[in-house]
Amino acid sequence: MQTFGPIMPIMKFSTDEEVIKLANDSRFGLGCGVFSGSQRRAKEIASQIHCGNAAINDFATSYMCQSLPFGGVKDSGFGRFGGVEGLRDCCLVKSVVEDRWWPHIKTMIPKPIRYPVADNGFTFQESLVEALYGLSIWDRLRALVNVLKIMSEQNSSSTKRRSD
User: Fold this and answer.
1) Which residues, in sequence order, are CB contacts of 61 under 8 Å at separation 6+?
2) pTM metric for this prediction
3) Could you tell me which of 121, 131, 109, 126 has the C-alpha nearest to residue 153?
4) Spatial separation of the C-alpha atoms in residues 91 and 16, rounded to whole Å
């Protein structure tokens, strides 16, 4: 059973890794408060604790700010209330996809990732993502060249198979 507090357990520890392990060794994860003389250190520790809310050098203030989402993880994970995420918890999200072009033009799955997936399918997909979201223009261009190369190899191999 989860204690509903707020309570503030105080425990001795030797290393940051030890205190993170202690905090995460629970079925519950509603919130945490991390206190430290170093703001950076407290944020680093809080980022590794599995919980729904974290307060740095404070305790339970995340509940007082009603515009923030509030809720836990693990056995404390029953969704969120408060904030935009609280409203989203009351919604049913559904993705609907359809072709928006002319009735006879259908979206085509590129041959390298069409079933059965080609040997270079993973490389193709990885290059495609890099071409769209790469960090630099050069990364994107290099990936685009790789995508086009794989596509041309696929097209030439399927043309050879048809002529055989």
Assistant:
1) 55
2) 0.52
3) 121
4) 39
What are the phi and psi torsion angles at 96 (to 5°)? Answer: -125, 125
Q: Is the peptide bond before 69 cis (omega within 30 degrees of 0)?
A: no
Contact 51, 30 (CB under 8 A): yes
Distance between CA atoms of 120 and 157, rounded to whole angstroms?
13
What is the C-alpha separation between 55 and 164, in angstroms, rounded? 68
Tell me: the pLDDT tens digits for 60-102?
A: 777 778 788 888 899 887 778 888 887 877 777 777 766 666 6
**CA 81 centroid distance within chain:** 20
**Residue in 75, 59, 49, 48 with CA at minimum distance from that of residue 9:** 59
Radius of gyration for the alpha carbons in the chain, expressed in angstroms and rounded: 25
